[in-house]
Amino acid sequence: MSEGKRSGEDNMKVAFQGEIGAYSESAVYSFFGSSAEVEPCENLSDVFESVKKGETPYGVVPIENSIEGSVNQTYDLFLEYDLKVCGEIILKITHCLIAHPGTHLNSIKTVYSHPQALAQCRKFLEQLGCRLISTFDTAGSVKMIKEEELKDAGAIASERAAEIYGMKVLAKEIGDTPNNYTRFFVLSKQDSLPSGQDKTSIIFSVKSVPGALHCVLEEFAIRNINLTKIESRPTKRTPWEYNFYLDFEGHRNEEKCREALESIRDKTLFVKILGSYKAAVEESKFNF
Fold this sequence. Notes:
Helices cover about 25% and strands about 30% of the residues. The protein is built from 9 helices and 15 strands.
């Protein structure tokens, strides 16, 4: 049984964005185990909708990449949906250039993939000198060039995607850096019980006055609560006003965390607790 899998939840149905073979699908299996039933979705918003409507009890969405940074759409969707983060996954990303069997590297004229995957393989692609076309998914790009019989095109995806669609790996480990990891959140209608190795994620905004953000962060500092990430995103309502996304160590039900969250309510315009969850202490391993 996977460490992240909850007891009595065999064959759990989980939504993810992308086609079969996507990195998000691998993240599902790494958390819930290989017996999980996956539900591919075209868009990230579809994953949130699936969990909101109860079509799937869980969803898995990317939140940030160690090279290209945050997945802004995921952060924005947390403002739209009243869902909780109940788990965290860190998955190592290893990109390959994939094409039809019989295709050679020097015959590739166009490369398709998700924008982040293209950005993460920038040096390799510059040397290849091909036209780059963004798509909604890495594995979906492999599926597309197969179904459309694009013999002079390649796709950037995982080696597993090549195996699933019967395609050929032309080059392995083509990313700009080997230290390429993506962090995923597990969505649910409830967060998790304390495990002793927890993190909590929140969203808040403050008045545009001197020291407002400092006053909020100070409440965590005086309680010796370690902040692991802070990210700002435009509110999209008023120019140059921002929401802040904050991760900190500890469960929201722990006394000092509960006190900190209560103390910042009078110092913010709003606070939304996304959830508390067991922290991923190392990269997830996924093997069938």
